[in-house]
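User: My instructor asked us to take a sequence, write out its structure as tokens, and then describe one feature of it. I'm not sure where to start. Here is the sequence I was given:
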Amino acid sequence: MTAKKGLEATAIEQLVSGVPSNFDAQRIIATLPNESLSPATNKIRIKRLKGIFSDLILNKIKYNVQLGKRVPAEMVILARELGNVKEVDRILRGGVDEEKVAYLDNISAGVEGFTKQGYINKFGDSFSRSISLIDKTDESLNEPLTPEEKKELEDFKEKYS
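Assistant: Let's start with the prediction itself. The structure tokens for your sequence are:
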């Protein structure tokens, strides 16, 4: 089980690698659905994970575009499949942000005063929305049930009571 969680964290780290951020891939493991939790809680967690991954992918695309890097076609397709068609198109029409490129070049060159934290302070954390979703509790993301979900819950209670 530990190896599986480590592999999942490594896959997430690959997605966010190279982007200056305070995002911690290990923390996302605690938000994964789990068979020991109720179906309602797992539904909340799945919805949260979709939001997190959608945000991570969109911001990785945006970061690559702003630095003039190639954006992998698979990443664009995945972002569109997650329902972000207009947002992806808007990001892809954007251009290179020379100020960000220069700052990152200075970090790479080891110029004093240019750090990852300085980048985040100046330009913001690219994954701040994902970080805030990870910080929320399952209860805070719980929305009222739709009529269909209420019926499903009643059917479930009736079946197992």
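For the description part of your assignment, you could build on this observation: Residues 39-66 form the longest helix (28 residues). Try explaining in your own words what that tells you about the chain.
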